[in-house]
Amino acid sequence: MKLTSKTTIGEIVADDFKTAAVFTKFHIDFCCKGHRTIEEVCKKRDIEESALIEHIEKARNSSANQSFDYKSWSADMIADYITKTHHRYVEEKSPVILEYLNKLCGVHGAIHPELHEIHTIFSKTYLDLTAHMKREELVVFPFIKKMKIAHSKGQELETPPFLSIENPITTLKEDHITEGQRFKRIVALTNNYTPPLDSCNTYKVAFLMLEEFDKDLKKHIHLENNILFPKAIELEKTFEKVS
Questions:
Q1: Closest Cα partner for 122 from 182, 175, 178?
Q2: Distance CA 112, CA 104 (A)
Q3: Alpha-carbon distances, residue 193 vs 1, 109, 115, 236 (angstroms)
Q4: What is the pLDDT of residues 30-44, one digit of tens each?
Q5: What is the 3-state secondary structure (H, E, C) of the chain?
Q6: Is 156:150 a contact under the CB 8 Å cutoff?
Q7: Which end of the chain lies in a sparser environment, N or C, as judged by fewer CB atoms within 10 Å?
Q8: Integer Rg of the chain from CA
Q9: 180 near 224, Cβ under 8 Å?
Q10: Residue 154 φ/ψ region, left for φ over 0, alpha for ψ in the -120 to 50 degree band, beta for the rest
């Protein structure tokens, strides 16, 4: 991919996920706001376009931390990967993080009242992501797989109850924006996941787990917003709807 000022952040990360580290370094949202161009984010962050492009090219040419070529995968394969990798991660890690936050609020909440807000925010994230993932696993992802099978067999595709895959995708992307905003608040409340100097091990582990969760969620959202959803929409366009 040749980079220009009009290339979008989402396209760049979709082409090579190693570039995600560059955007994270410059505090550029590549998942929920991946539709923005290099020109737009550079103006927003007061960054020289040439400098950002240089960092991106350096990351793309690096042999370290090679990731899967998700862009080459089929839509149903990506949906299956997201379910088995990122959905399972949320299900397994969230209760553990909440347990740590509960302990912190009980022991340190009086001195660090921000812990209560962090707990409240993450509790909402867990509940909302659980419902969000169920909608994907029970409705959206099965339809994507159904489209893939019909396409490979040259079959017609009946119009789904939601009329077009773009309708639930719009709602899912709105959910992603909400989660992005929540974690920006958590980042601020935790001073970028930096525990107090005199903090106990529980404090340190809780913040490390929150930071890891944040990173995984960014990749999770990126895979959906910038790769899976566009593939699903394009796949749907190959069918002539029948009633």
A1: 182
A2: 9
A3: 34, 17, 12, 41
A4: 878 889 999 999 999
A5: CCCCCCCEHHHHHHHCHHHHHHHHHCCCCCCCCCCCEHHHHHHHHCCCHHHHHHHHHHHHHCCCCCCCCHHHCCHHHHHHHHHHHHHHHHHHHHHHHHHHHHHHHHHHCCCCCHHHHHHHHHHHHHHHHHHHHHHHHHHHHHHHHHHHHHHHHCCCCECCCCCCCHHHHHHHHHHHHHHHHHHHHHHHHCCCCCCCCCCCHHHHHHHHHHHHHHHHHHHHHHHHHHHHHHHHHHHHCCCCCEC
A6: yes
A7: C
A8: 20
A9: no
A10: left
Residues 119-176 pLDDT 10s: 999 999 999 999 999 999 999 999 999 999 999 998 888 889 999 999 999 999 999 9
For residue 240, what are its two tokens? 């002539």
Residue 221 CA to residue 216 CA, distance in Å, equals 9
Cross-strand partners of 242: 158
Token pair in block for residue 157: 């595709």
Please, are residues 220 and 136 in contact by the beta-carbon 8 Å criterion? no
Determine whether 1 is exposed, middle or buried from the number of CB atoms within 10 Å of its CB (0-12, 13-18, 19+).
exposed
Please identify which residue in the block is written with the tokens 């350096």.
Answer: 58
Residue type, 144: I
Beta bridge partners of 8: 37
Identify residue 82 by its one-letter amino acid code: I
Is the pLDDT reported for residue 243 higher than 50? no
